[in-house]
Structures are given as structure tokens and as C-alpha cells.
Amino acid sequence: MTQFEEGKIKIHTENIFPIIKKAVYSDHEIFLRELVSNGVDAISKRRMASIAGDCESIDEAKIQISVNRENKSIVISDNGIGMTADEIKKYINQVAFSSAEEFLQKYEENQEGIIGHFGLGFYSSFMVAKNVEIISKSAIKDSSPVKWSCDGSPNFKLESCEKEEIGTDIILYLMEEEIEYIEPSRIKTLIRKYCDFMPVDVQLEGESINKTNPPWRKNIKELKDEDYIEFYKYLYPFQGEPLFWVHLNTDYPYNLQGILFFPKISGRADWESGEIKLFSNQVFVSDSIKEVVPRYLLPLRGVIDSTDIPLNVSRSALQSNRKVRSIANFISKKIADKLKLIKKDNATLYSQIWNSIAPFIKIGAMEDEKFAEQVEDLIIFKTIRKEAFIDKEIVITSEELTFTTIKEYVNRLKLESEGKVLYCTDEISQSNPLNLWKAQGKEIIIADTVIDSQFIPWLESRNEKITFQRVDSEIDDSLNSDDKEITDVDGDNMSESLRELIKSALNNDKITVQIKSLKDNDEIPAMILLPEQMRRINDMGALMEQKLPGLPDNHVLLVNKNHPIVEGLSKLKSSSIIIDNKGGSQNTLLIKEISVHLYEMACLSIGGLDPEKMSDFQKKSSGLMGKLISKIT
């Protein structure tokens, strides 16, 4: 074996090898991605050179990985273009090392900054190896094989060697603490993670362990629905099937391919890091791409593959990169276009998937003005009313549910100039006022998602002529009967007397008591009303404190004087006999207990009693029933 040269790699960063070994500590595994990627590049270069007639062609391009447990080594071999001695000195000692130096300088400035830690290249070998050898034979005719070796210091050796086949072998002699990478199962896992879709066959001990032909690189006409679903299940096992998908493909003004899936979200979605996988030329880079994809699309799943997304810059620099912003806008528009197509071609399907896609659309509209304009007619709400909808009314029906846009709701109710959109956020706790409005033929939209507490004010801000009113915020004159007010034996207004009676019993200045005669209703004794703006302030405060909104201190108790209990309360007061000089009577305590009971029943219906008050309510209810029974026995 003839030694050509022995020397030192010219370095500018002192003690760079120890830095490499300690760098990106949690991501030492990327060495395999970097080396296999280099092998793929070498094969691509040989293909191009062979087309030009500069070297022999490749019969079967492949990268082979083998392990040797005895000497604790891994060999990554490719049959690419190979290198001569001069090329090794140029590309390994100079170009590759300079790139490694540049990477480490950026890494030291921002350790969390470089996406996927992409760019360390060949010298990532020294994160796991104490010694590294390169044995290469160039595809150039009459080239001699050459061996380069380095022990993890700036010293290297370059000598002749024996090698029959064209290509390059990278031999890593692992450090003791990195011995896990000699295990075939570990290697398979890393190839599946980083190199699964590389365009070259990767083999481990002769077995192919990657797919090579990703669906996102294929023409959309070549793929069937089954192909997309199979790909989704491969990427995300045990997650069921996606709702739908968007196939991305453009080569101007940037190169980008990919497939994004809308998952069936059950539970909380990941709005922070996301599950979209970023690839660069079919090489996996990262599954955290919040700087590339708008936040409201992060819970989507799938793949984005682009060589135009800069990977060797800090994450903060990405956010201000003009090309990255343009890519984000492109993705958003493609998503909006797909949603428009679904709603146009299959409105029933659109309504069926609405609950899953609504968070994306609503958050996106609030955060991105361009996206808001694109999805303006895609935002729908479940809507209910007493009378059935007729054909000429523009709604979407699915099974027993009906959906509408706010625009069509306004058109039906002729609210163009001004008006209120009635909405309900909980059909159970707000059932009493909801049924009152329905009984009068009103149409109510259902806005029952968490995000709606922010989304409704946003909708109002875009249409100043329309306001939203929750069904339990107030009761207008249309829900009151026209019964004339009557007076008691003393000539006093009975409604006012009753109001003062209940107000005194509750002894709480923050509770406003209203006495109404509800139209055609004697089933509701009392209910809690929450004035719209006051309730919104309460809800916003709860949201900022990350807790569920409770019953605001200031609220309204509406008492229906048509109900038998309320009527009985009035009679009980009228029949009271004064027995002391303070105006007290034998029924005073009972009247107070019934008044408090009416209030607490109203609170109970909206979930306004905490566990302690609930227990107290049950005890008082039992006592009240006992007193009432004793009066008839």
C-alpha cells in the first residue's frame, strides 16, 4: 500500500473535532442521514456523468450498509461516482470541512436554530466514530482506488488501496458510548425515519429497507384514493383514515411537492409543533415546521418536500424569509381551494366533516386576512328553528342537521341594514331560553366550540351592521305576553311587589330581578339571563386564566309569573297574617325559602352551582318539601 500523503486538515476553528463530537448531542443519529444522502448525491452525479459519456453507467444504483460486531464498525457503501486522491483532498479536507466549520459556528450561536441540524455533512461521522476511513474508486477511466483515514484529530492519511468496484465506502469505528448504532434494528429505524423515501435503494446486509418512490413525487393522475389512504396509514399507524387530502406540486417560483391530510381530530390538536414532516429532496429533515406552515395548519399531517426552504439558517431567520412566507401563502391557498371544491361538489360531505375542519378555518381566518377572504363563504354553523326549511332557502342538510352561512342567515331574516343574529353555545344549559325563541319562530345558530367565544366578536368586527346575541342574554318584548298588569288587595303592582319580595329574599345587589309574563309558557318558573357584553368580559377573563367560565357575579334572574310556583308565591304573600310589630308573618320564612329555591333551580339549569352549593341546595330542597307537606297534612 503506497502512502501518498500524510498531513493536517487546515482548520480555522480550534479543537473542532471535540466540538463535533459534542455538538447536537441529542441528534447524533443524523450521521446516518448525512452519509446516506452523500451516497445518493454521488449516484446522481455518476448518472449525469454517464449520460455525458464521461464515465461508466450504473446497472443498479444502491447504497449498502453492513456491520461488523467484532471491530464495532459500520460500513456505508455506494456505487456512485467515487473520488480520486485529488478529489478527496479537495472535497473532504477542504470543501466538506469548511461546510462543517460553518455549520458549527451557526450551531453555537443558536443551538435550537438549525432545522434538523442539516448541513454537518460527512463530518457528522465524528459524532459517533473514533476513527473514520474512506475507500473510494472514481468512475473516471483508469482511476486508482484510494484510502483516506482520520482518527478524530486534524491529522489524516491518504494512501493507495485495493477496491474493485466503482464507488465509495465510508467505514466508521464506533465509540463505546455510540455502540447502539451497530444494531440492525436501530439502523432500520433511522433509515425509516430519515431515508425511507430516498430515490435510491438502501440495503442492510442485502435487504432493501426503504421505499424509494414517494407518492408526493407522482402525478396526481397516477394515484387513486386508496393510494393516499394507504400512504397516510403508513405515516400515521393506528390513526384511522383522513378526512381528505391536498396534493401539492409547483416548480415556480419555488420547487415544492407534498401531500397534506386533514385528520379526524379527537381531543386536543397540536397547535404548537405539528405533525407535518419536512423533506428536502426526499430526505427527512424535521417534523417541527412551525416556521414554514401557518400556525392554524399545524395540526394537519403529511409531507412537504422542498429544496427551496433554507435549512442551514436559524429558525428565527426562516420566519422573515420572503420565499418561506410565499410558500406558506401557497399552502394556505391550496387548502382553501380544496375546501371550496368539497363544499361545491358535495355540500353534505362538507357539513359532515365541518366539526373537524372548523378549528383550522376559524383560527386561520382570525390570524390571516388573506385566508379569511378565501374562506369567507366556507364558514358554516348548525342552525335550528321550529319550522322546516323550504327548498328556496339556501341551507345545507345532513341527516337531521341543517347548516347555514351567516350571509344566508342574514338574507333570510332580512337583517342587511341592522339586526341581531341569535346564537346558542350549549343546547342543554341554555335550553329554556332556546325553546322560548324557537317557539316564536326564531332561527338560532349553534356556536358551541371553544373558539367561538373569540370567533363571534371577530365576525362582528367584519360586519358592523350585525350583532350577535346569545339566547340567554335578554328576553325582548316578542317573548312577553300582552296580559295587563294587575294589582293586589292593597292596590300595589303585583309584579313590582313580587320583584321586591324575591330581591329581599336573595339579599344580593349584584342580582337583578325581572318579573315577566312569558308568552304561551307556564313551564319555566325562572331562568338566569347573562347580558351579552358582561358575559363576554367574564368569558375572556376565564380564557386568559385558562379555566372554565363560571356564573358572573352580575346577572339577571328572570321570574315567569305565569308559572304555578310563582303564582303560589304571590298568593302566599297575600294570605300572610302579620304577627309582630316588625311586619313579620308565619309565612315570611317560607316565602324566602321558596324565592331562594327558584333562584337556585335557575342556577342549577345552567351549571351555576359549585359542588358545595349543590350539596347545600339538596339539603334545603328536602327541608322545603317537608315544610310544604306539613301544611297540607
End-to-end distance = 117 Å
Question: What is the strand arrangement across the widest sheet?
Answer: 1-6-5-4-7-3-2-8-9
> Which regions have little confidence, pLDDT < 50, spanning 5+ residues?
110-119
Please indicate the percent range of residues in DSSP E strands (runs of 2 or more). Answer: 15-25%
Number of strands: 23
Shape descriptor reads elongated
Task: State Rg.
Answer: 37 Å
Mean pLDDT: 85
Enumerate how many helices there are, as a single number.
17
Helical fraction: 25-40%
SS-based class: alpha+beta
Major beta-sheet overview: 9 strands, mixed
What does this structure look like?
About 35% of the residues lie in helices and about 20% in strands. It has helices at about 15-20, 30-50, 85-110, 185-195, 225-235, 315-320, 320-345, 345-365, 370-375, 405-415, 430-440, 450-460, 495-505, 530-545, 565-575, 590-605, 610-630; strands spanning about 5-10, 60-70, 75-80, 130-135, 145-150, 155-160, 165-175, 200-205, 205-210, 245-250, 255-260, 275-280, 285, 300-305, 380-385, 395-400, 400-405, 420-425, 445, 465-470, 510-515, 525-530, 555-560. The strands form 4 sheets. It has a 9-stranded mixed β-sheet, with helices on one face. A 6-stranded mixed β-sheet has the order 16-17-15-19-18-20, with helices on both faces. Strands 10-11-14-12-13 form a 5-stranded mixed β-sheet, sandwiched between helices. Mean pLDDT is about 85; it is low at about 110-120. Helix 13 packs across helix 16.
Characteristic key phrases:
six-stranded mixed sheet, alpha+beta, nine-stranded mixed sheet, 17 helices, 633 residues
